[in-house]
Amino acid sequence: MSKNQNLPAERPYSVSQNFLTSRRLIHRLLQKADLAPTDTVVEIGAGKGHITRALSERCKKVLAYEIDRSLCEKLAGRLGDNVRLFCGDFLRAPLPAEPYKVFANIPFSITTEIVRKLTAADPLPEGMWLVMEKGAAKRFCGLPRPNLTSLKLRPFYDLRIRHTFRREDFHPAPRVDAVLLEFKRKPQPDIQPSQRRAYDDFLTYSFAHGLFGPRALLTKKQIATALRLAGLPGIAPTGEILYVQWLCLFRCWAQFGQRQARK
């Protein structure tokens, strides 16, 4: 019998859910995910248990979260022995201390909060496959161009859309297009975890005040020199800056800019 545990009381909001009920489709999605029989996997929004049961057949342990008490009561005792069901708000729940992956059809209304919680975790999930609204997925991927959100994710994850759904795949059908977004953790991150806050601060400040100008963190000469020494092209006339360019400039600032600021 699955083990159930109550979480702290939910926040006063309503989370709508669009369920995937086709067993065939769910198994097709799981085949696209890097899930092994030895894995611990977190599911956010267990709903009616369709994905939960499929995960329990494939993985060693499933930690499933569901905020709707009535759905929790219906699932109680109906899941595998390797499933632990948490009834309450995932956003208030502690994350596993052990290595884990995430596979979930998340509530679209709190996508940003869920991704923020997972990507700020220690340890980071080894991989994530999240069903979400297509527009949000493109923003996380940095499409059509890099943005603050996507740039903060890139040092740690490679992202790509693995599946595009039809609206009739869900019940009830959502009003927006949905996709399965893969977050594949890099074996070696592009920055050290200890640099993450400085990297985020560098990006946030540069987006707010500009990479060039009187309040910029680097001079035009420093920017041109750093990119040239790294074998990268200069900033395009359009002003678009690639991820590798941002990474190069952050490393330059971390090495020289912060030191100058402390003098």
Quick structural summary:
This protein has 9 helices and 10 strands.
Structural write-up:
This protein is an alpha/beta fold. It has 2 domains: 3-185, 3-Layer(aba) Sandwich (Rossmann fold); 193-262, no CATH class. Helix content is 35%, strand content 20%. The chain is built from 9 helices and 10 strands. It has helices at residues 23-31, 50-58, 69-75, 111-119, 134-141, 148-153, 196-209, 220-229, 243-262; strands at residues 3-6, 19-20, 40-44, 61-66, 83-87, 101-105, 127-133, 157-164, 170-171, 178-185. The strands form 2 sheets. Strands 1-5-4-3-6-7-10-8 form an 8-stranded mixed sheet. Helix 4 links the parallel strand 6 (101-105) and strand 7. Helix 1 crosses helix 2 (50-58), helix 7 crosses helix 9 (243-262) and helix 8 crosses helix 9.
